[in-house]
Amino acid sequence: MAENGASPVALELVPALPIPDHLIGEVRSKLAYVDEAIARAEITGDGDHIHLTLHQPIDDARQAQLDEKVQRVVTSMVKGAFRPKVQVLEDHLDRPAPYTQDPMVELLQRGEVSQEIPGVFALGPRLARLMAFFEDRFVELADSFQAPPYRFPTLIPAHYLERVNYFHAFPHSLTFATHLREDLDVIDHFAGQAACDEHGLVAPPASFAQVQALLSPAVCYHLYFSLADRPLPGGQLAATAVGNCFRYEAINLASLERLWNFTMREIIFVGPKDFVLENRETARQRMQPVFKEIGLAYRMESANDPFFIGEFRKQAAFQSAFQLKFEIRARLPFSDSTLAVGSYNYHQDFFGRSLNISLPDGSPAHTGCVAFGLERIAYAFLAQHGLDPANWPQWVREAANG
Ligand code: 5GP
Ligand code: ZN
After folding, report:
1. Which element (helix H / strand E) includes 86?
2. Contact yes or no for 300/87 (Cβ under 8 A)
3. pLDDT by residue (tens digit) across 95-143?
4. 211 three-state secondary structure
5. What is the SS3 assignment for 261?
6. Predicted confidence band at 2 (pLDDT cuts at 50, 70, 90)?
7. Whose CA is nearest to atom 16 of ligand 1?
8. What is the pTM of this model?
9. Which is the closest atom of ligand 1 to the Cα of 340?
């Protein structure tokens, strides 16, 4: 049942252009942001039907509006798009992965995870220990580059994100932090009236101050900002940090695969082009035997970031053409799919130029990062090996079975 007791209804649309199979996932995930009436969106295999589930029936005028917005998404993402050439750097998808269930079912049954709201989960000791085990592996990788640890805040200033064009590239996934205005009447009124309904907190929007900060969507941005508007000390550097990251994913939020609030460990390189590219490649090679020992079935392949609709086609093609992003995609046997558990990124001199970070010769610094999602790697491991440590590869069993 939807809110106010109305029943969900199905709506089928024919996209103005057929959606090629390499874009089906990207378009589907963007449909989550098209209209608040949409509870679920699916695209059939051949890309010529969109099946929506709406929270409740809508009238013809609303339906025409919704249809126009869906077609706008389809047209801007599909028109003129070409199939990227996927480059595969490693393929270990055929490693044995004996478990075949969705671990989420057992994790929920055992009380090992509990959902606070969609995309936000409390995690119990089995997952916490597994994540700590993977963390140790990534810290070892950071140590192998003598990358010293940094600590960054969870909040990130709005003007930082503005300076790196984030509002334009990823507006859909932003999470804003605010507070009450510094006004006794506003605070008294709020304190007396604050209450939640089924959708969240009820309070007049005018109670809240202008947004100065957001919840940070990535870890490495904080490092680049700390280096902004000056020459890069020593001409090159490596750093590592772990942090909470936030990407709002609307109805796409499902299990530990896609979280609003997740944890990322990054190893970050700033310096000349070759320094960044060579370290990115070295990091890949150093992790190869680690993933083997952990028994992870995965493929490492070129990828693109989930840019918002207007930016998607151009930016994704650019990333693909210049091989700017590679993802470690772990196998999820239960759904016969893969999930990105880490990425190896090269930003060229984008941050160096945007933030005026200069090399000794006066040119802008290049940057790159290696980023691992801790919840995702633990989830993918459990999806392949199950929850019983007796069935885990020996190294993990001995180190993460508390
Ligand atoms: P990227 O910066 O490449 O988008 O993200 C780096 C890594 O963070 C991803 O490979 C993934 O492991 C993790 N990550 C990104 N988005 C999400 C998300 O929505 N949920 C979870 N659980 N992890 C994510
Ligand atoms: Zn990064």
Report:
1. none
2. no
3. 999 999 999 999 999 999 999 999 999 999 999 999 999 999 999 999 9
4. coil
5. strand
6. very low
7. 258
8. 0.94
9. 10
